[in-house]
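To: structure desk
From: M.T.
Subject: fold request, one chain
Message: Could you run this one when you get a chance? Sequence is below, nothing fancy, just the single chain.
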Amino acid sequence: MDGIRVMFALLGELVAFMSGLARSRAARVAENLFVRKQLARYRERGAKPRQPEVASRMGLAVLADCFSWKDALVVVQRRIWIRWH
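Reply: Done. Structure tokens follow.
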């Protein structure tokens, strides 16, 4: 039963990925910045992270193999963030 749940979760991740490809680059960049801001606030609060589910780990592993993710990491300084707004 867990295998079926993981397969459906991975299928959902694939559909989300494919729909993301259909959006404009500006929309993807805006979503990425929004998620980064959420992560920064999460870290500021010092909340303890939850263990990701198997499907999430598998999906991230597949995505990590699809592109050079280390080149995609960008550290945004506070003054740049303020200037963008």
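Reply (cont.): The chain has five helices and no strands. Let me know if you need anything else for the meeting.
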